[in-house]
Amino acid sequence: MRSLSVLLLLALVSTGCDSGSGGDEGLLEITDISPGNGDLVALGQTLKVTYEGRLEDGTIFDSTDERGKPWYFTMVEGQVIEGWLDGLVGMEVEGTRRLVIPPHLAFGRQGRCLSDGSCPVPPNSTVIYEITVEAVIGDVVIEVVAEGVGVSADVGRLVAVGYTGTFVDGQVFDSTELSGQPFVFRLGTGQVIAGWDRGILGMKEGGIRNLVIPPHQAYGASGVPGSIPPYTTLLFRVEMVRVDT
Predict the structure, then answer these.
(1) 234 found inside a domain
(2) What is the mean pLDDT of residues 91-118?
(3) Is 208 a catalytic residue?
(4) Enclosing domain of residue 182
(5) Rounded to whole angstroms, what are the CA distances from 162 to 59, 190, 198, 200?
(6) What's the structural domain count of the chain?
(7) Which of the following is catalytic: 51, 174, 197, 213?
(8) Residue 7: inside a domain
(9) Is 116 a catalytic residue?
(10) Are residues 98 and 152 in the same domain?
(11) Does residue 115 carry a pLDDT above 90?
């Protein structure tokens, strides 16, 4: 695929670098609010979650309700705060868990501050999350927006598509709108990431799909230096412009 140039800025990626809060004081508190389906969350999995994060005084500082969409991330160091990694392991999928996370496992003495100078999470704050694990994402998630007509895009066919790629926070990292030209490739031959070869298969001209592509079918543990961080889930909206017969 074409080169990418925009860095991901994840709200949850901050792991509290230089996160000491005067010592590693306080323990992670875990409470299961509702049971799940029996499948257990493990390190290395890519998860789809909804959550609400608040301070001890009840102030909500982040929520998937406010974002209007779920969050996708992989259970590896550097993707989320340490309290999430420690607190979600062993949780049942489709269950809900409350985590009370002390500062040294959250955003530390730096807090979580924005470029405008505000700090939704002040330094040395204990944070409370209620998290529902909706699913473990093991394959491309395909949402068919429009079916299209005509010839199906099968393995080996030359196709032309228009697309917009975003990170899970909605930030656009690449789009054919930048060039004004569709992207042309031969399907199923390794010319694009595996998630595209799987997610675009069977599309017809005029068809539109939304794709959620987990890291192991995108750029994996390496990412794309300067563009795609390691273990990043990617979202694409793809429109089939042409399928060569």
Answers:
(1) yes
(2) 95
(3) no
(4) 141-243
(5) 41, 19, 17, 12
(6) 2
(7) 174
(8) no
(9) no
(10) no
(11) no
Query: Quick count: other Cβ atoms within 10 Å of Cβ 231?
Result: 23
This prediction has a pTM of: 0.85
**For the residues 34-51, what does the mean pLDDT come to?**
95
Q: Which of 51, 73, 173, 183 is catalytic?
A: 173
The CATH number that applies at residue 198 is 3.10.50.40
Q: Bin 73: left if φ > 0, else alpha if -120 < ψ < 50, else beta.
A: beta
Do 148 and 239 share a domain, yes or no?
yes
**Catalytic residue of the set 51, 163, 183, 231:** 163
61 is known as an active-site residue: no
Which of 61, 167, 231, 236 is labelled catalytic?
236
Among residues 193, 200, 213, 228, the one annotated as catalytic is 193
Mark whether 183 is an active-site residue: no
Query: Of the candidates 87, 106, 136, which is a domain's last residue?
Result: 136
Q: Residue 14: is its pLDDT beyond 50?
A: no
pLDDT band at 97 (very low <50, low <70, confident <90, very high): very high
CA distances from 11 to 15, 167, 202 (A): 10, 11, 35
pLDDT of residue 24: 58
Residue 11 placed within a domain: no
Q: Collect all residues with Cβ–Cβ distance below 8 Å to 7 and sequence separation of at least 6.
A: 226, 227, 229
More confident position, 18 or 25:
25
Question: Domain for residue 169, yes or no?
Answer: yes
- Residues 225-244 have a mean pLDDT of 96
In this structure, the answer to whether residues 63 and 151 fall within a common structural domain is no
Nearest C-alpha neighbor of 105 from the set 43, 12, 31, 20: 20
Q: Which of 61, 129, 167, 219 is catalytic?
A: 219
